[in-house]
Amino acid sequence: LGLFFTEMATSDNIKIIVFIRDQLEYAISSSSTVINANYLSKLKFNYSKLFMSFSHPETFKDLYYDKSLELFAKYFGISNIKIEVYDKNNNSRNLFDAMTGFLGINNTGHYITPIAINTSSSLLVMKYKLYINSLLQGHEIDPSLQFTSINSKISFKKFINNQLEHIAKKNVNPMKPSLNIRKAWHKEFSNSNREVAKKFSLNGKKIFLRTLMQKIFYSKHIFSNSEYKKQFRLELNGHDKVKLQDLVTLIIYFNDFRIKN
Q1: Mean pLDDT in consecutive groups of 10 residues from the start of the chain, 261 residues
Q2: In this structure, how many other beta carbons lie within 10 angstroms of the beta carbon of residue 83?
Q3: Distance between CA atoms of residues 255 and 146, nearest Å
Q4: What Cα–Cα distance (Å) separates residue 68 from each residue in 87, 116, 120, 167, 200?
Q5: Distance between CA atoms of 138 and 125, rounded to whole angstroms?
Q6: Model's pTM, two decimal places?
Q7: How far is 239 from 184, CA to CA, in rounded Å?
Q8: I need a labelling partner for 223 at 20 to 30 A (CA). Which of 15, 107, 123, 240 fits?
């Protein structure tokens, strides 16, 4: 594969744009994305295992950015790599703006660009999805069900997600790390991040190299260790469970209807 990329890099003018993010924020966001992608399926989630994974940042091997970027530089050259630091609270540039800027393309107002999709969920909605997933175990759910269009504007999964947001009643609280978790992740990846800043040009360098105290200061969500652990109790009230059970009945009905027709 390396040989293939080397030949491509020498014969084509390849530009690579890489968005990097605070590792802990990325991991939390990814957990929401994984749940959203798979909750309408046979895949069974282990919520306690998810909780334990955040206590071991060293197991997230792909988040040592210096190692990954060194491979890109090896095959494509540092001058062909543009690195953007993503910061959710700082209105970071989107992929399209970063790409056109890197290529020197101006006056892009008349371009048709894809709509940004954010699949991150509040902690409560994540629990709803995990509860629905537990009720679907034992049912033969068609893998393509979630992508089925209800009409020209909305997919079946989007419809279900909208219902979950409605049940949550604007409870948008995200999963929050504890101070100990934040310290562990900062300690684990700080050397890797310094290497990235040393070897590559970063758009958003100050954000990326924030100290631990700066990260705590700018973070809106820091919990004590006991409060952090409480988040991982899959406890829902009876009223919400009834509504979620009704949604599961709808999901199974829709799934069976598609299979038969």
Answers
A1: 59 78 91 91 81 89 94 86 79 67 77 66 91 93 88 89 92 86 95 94 88 80 78 88 96 88 75
A2: 23
A3: 9
A4: 20, 25, 24, 41, 12
A5: 22
A6: 0.83
A7: 38
A8: 240
